[in-house]
Design goal:
Order of helices and strands: HHH
Shape: elongated
Number of helices: 3
Structural class: mainly alpha
Radius of gyration: 15 Å
Length: 85
């Protein structure tokens, strides 16, 4: 779980460092995937009784927001790239 959580921010940072919107879009997609992976892991923990439903729902909602923001940023960058052509 720690790896998936760290992967979100690390992939955003790595994509940004390429100074290329195409690469940033790629790595934002990977970060979004890591957010989904973390949601899945949290779900399994909650079902196994390792975390409460309240804790699960709090993290789940935060991860949905992160995924939504990443999706919006990817959409913006894709539209920006289309306008440049």
């Amino acid at each position: 779980m720690i790896g998936a959580a760290i992967s979100i921010s690390n992939n955003i940072a790595e994509g940004f460092e390429y100074n290329s919107n195409k690469q940033l879009i790629k790595y934002l997609g990977i970060a979004k995937g890591s957010a989904g992976e973390l949601r899945s892991q949290l779900y399994l923990l909650q079902k196994a009784g390792k975390i409460s439903l309240e804790v699960y729902e709090g993290f789940y909602n935060e991860l949905i927001e992160i995924s939504s923001e990443l999706k919006g940023f990817i959409k913006y960058l894709n539209e920006y790239e289309k306008m440049k052509k």
